[in-house]
Structures are given as C-alpha cells and as structure tokens.
Design brief:
70 residues, mainly alpha, 0% strand, elongated
Length: 70
C-alpha cells in the first residue's frame, strides 16, 4: 500500500500543484523518503524520477503544441 502511494504522488502533485516539473521534484522526494523501506535502497529514486520526468515532458509537449495551434 505504501509503495503504491509513493508511486502515485508525483502524478498527483503535478495535477494538484500545476507547477512545471512538479512531478519530477516530487518523484525525487518520494524516492528519497521510500528508500529506507525499499529493498533496493536509493535505486528506487531512478524509476520515480524517470516516471515523473516523462510525465512532465509529455505535459510540456502537449501544452506547447496546443499553444502553437491556437
């Protein structure tokens, strides 16, 4: 349950906060917070940051594409 919540936090942060690259920053924080309880330790930061960065990049690309079309 806890691991599932930590993996959802970056996407939820981007949605609720609305700041650019919020999912990446929160993914890094969630990875650091979940490292002590994870069997792989600090390596858990990599997938969280990668997923947050990918999400933020897609949101940025869609936003910039929409602004060019309008």
């Amino acid at each position: 349950m806890i691991a599932g919540a930590y993996s959802v936090f970056p996407f939820l942060a981007r949605r609720l906060l609305g700041y650019r690259w919020a999912a990446t920053v929160v993914g890094c924080l969630a990875g650091v917070l979940s490292a002590p309880i994870s069997p792989i330790g600090l390596l858990i930061v990599v997938p969280f940051v990668a997923a947050g960065a990918a999400y933020d990049a897609v949101v940025w690309a869609i936003t910039s594409l929409r602004s060019r079309i309008s």
